[in-house]
Amino acid sequence: MSAEIRDLTDAEARAALVCKWGEVPDDVLPAWVAEMDYAVAEPIIEAVQRAVAIGMTGYPRPADSPGLGTAYAGWADRRFGHAVDAGRVLATADVTAGVRLALDVAAPSGGLVFPVPGYSPQLAMAEITGRRRHDLVVDPDAERAELDLDQLAHHFENGARVLLLTQPHNPWGRVFTRAELEGVRDVVLRHGGFVVSDEIHAPLVLDGREHVPYLSVEGTADHTVAVVAASKGFNIAGLKCAQLVTGSRRLHTALAEAPMARNDSWSTIGVEASIAAYTHGDAWLDALLVRLAAQRDLLGSLLAEHLPLARMRPVEATYLAWLDLRAYGHDDPAAVALERQRVKLAAGHDYQPGLDGHVRLNFATSPARLTAILERLAAAVTSP
Ligand SMILES: Cc1ncc(COP(=O)(O)O)c(C=O)c1O
After folding, report:
1. Which tens digits make up the pLDDT trace of 260-287?
2. Same domain, 219 and 266
């Protein structure tokens, strides 16, 4: 079955995406928060409409109810060749809540290693879980963004116990290879560490690359909680359903037996939508990946034409481009772009405090809008 990616009109996007479009004035082009300007996949719309029509608006089933686990296990098998035990999948409200829960009830105490630049709200994750944050910094001048294993080992030797791994990475755009992940595993095992693996972007791997779930790397089951979701790949973050996946009985039990007040907010409709995505979403997702790769390539040409001094890290996954605009001389190019040309990007320093001259640009929109975004960005930053 083939599927089509339908671009939302401005009016549709403004009505549908109440954060990305609704929170900016009408004359601002939004390319900031990670949501896509595309219509939701048909199987998900049908599942949600069916659920609402029969009044499925009460509390959800328990976290370990089999429907969601079976759907995710089927998906992980088809998309990643990863054998997941459906009984070791638990519902949680969203990836943010899942990461917090894993840190609170499954991970050992001790410092938290956080690769930066990193997903901005997670910069606060160490503090709110009572840990010290150890930044694992990628050099902004490095050709390729890589996890520096010596830095990781250094942090583990200096009080860190847990790595918050994001893979594929936002905003690096990297898909880590099995060999890279085995390197991480070796350092973690050597230091008795733990990994919370945020794999929310796993569906969004481009160009036929392979997403390697960290739990599929041998020897990781006893030190890992993976947090996954259909939300980013299918644009359904507002429906509130993510999943915690473990490979060990001990970790599963620690999460499953957490008091309800720690983990109770996933939504009934979100579960239905996630099951639909995992069961019937392949054709739509395949079409999406073709579209996103084309958008990324268009972005590359537009940068070459309008902002030749910009550096874009290769985007191997996600629809978020990390742009180094330091050559244009503005500390905060996102602020300049908003003020001068009414285009809203995410500021680089939100992902790495103190880092100037970078922006994150969301290219999951129409070719025409992406062209306008780039033209406006260039008009804004190319004058002093
Ligand atoms: C790496 C990463 N983790 C987590 C989230 C947030 O996920 P959720 O809305 O499920 O909390 C995002 C959102 O873009 C993200 O990029």
Report:
1. 999 988 999 999 999 999 999 999 999 9
2. yes
Residue-level pLDDT at 2? 63
Mutation pick for ligand 1 pocket among 20, 200, 350 (CB with most ligand atoms within 8 Å): 200
CATH number of the domain at 133, please. Answer: 3.40.640.10
Q: Are residues 155 and 174 in the same domain?
A: yes
Secondary structure (3-state) at 41:
coil
* Distance from the alpha carbon of residue 96 to the mean position of ligand 1, in angstroms: 6
Query: Structural domain of residue 335, as residue ranges?
Result: 10-42+282-381
Q: Is residue 91 part of a domain?
A: yes
Q: Taking residues 299-306, what's their average pLDDT?
A: 98
Give Cα 239 to chain centroid, integer Å.
16
Question: How far is the first Cα of the chain from the last one, in angstroms, to the nearest whole number?
Answer: 51
Distance 271 CA to ligand 1 centre (A): 17
Number of domains in the chain: 2
* 175-192 residue pLDDT tens: 999 999 999 999 999 999
Q: Report the pLDDT averaged over residues 74-90.
A: 98
Phi-psi region of 329 (alpha: psi -120 to 50; beta: other; left: phi over 0): left
**Centroid of ligand 1 to alpha carbon of 253 (angstroms):** 24
Say what the pLDDT of residue 1 is.
54
CA of 242 to the centre of ligand 1 (A): 10
Question: Cα of 5 to ligand 1 centre, how many Å?
Answer: 22
Cβ-based neighbours of 46, under 8 Å, separated by 6 or more: 276
Which pLDDT score is estimated for 154?
Answer: 98
| 166 CA closest ligand 1 atom index | 1
Looking at the structure, do residues 125 and 103 belong to the same domain, yes or no? yes
Is the CA virtual torsion 20, 21, 27, 31 positive or negative?
A: positive
Q: How confident is the model at residue 143 (pLDDT cuts 50, 70, 90)?
A: confident
Q: How far does residue 383's CA lie from ligand 1's centre (Å)?
A: 34
Q: How many helices (H) and strands (E) does the chain have?
A: 13, 13
- Clarify whether residues 16 and 84 are in a common domain: no
Query: 260 lies in a domain?
Result: yes
Shared domain for 246 and 318, answered yes or no, is: no
For ligand 1, which residues put their CB under 6 angstroms from it? 34, 94-96, 119, 166, 170, 198, 200, 229, 231-232, 237, 242
Say if 49 falls within a structural domain: no
User: From the alpha carbon of 320, which atom of ligand 1 is closest?
Assistant: 16
Nearest CA to ligand 1 atom 15: 119
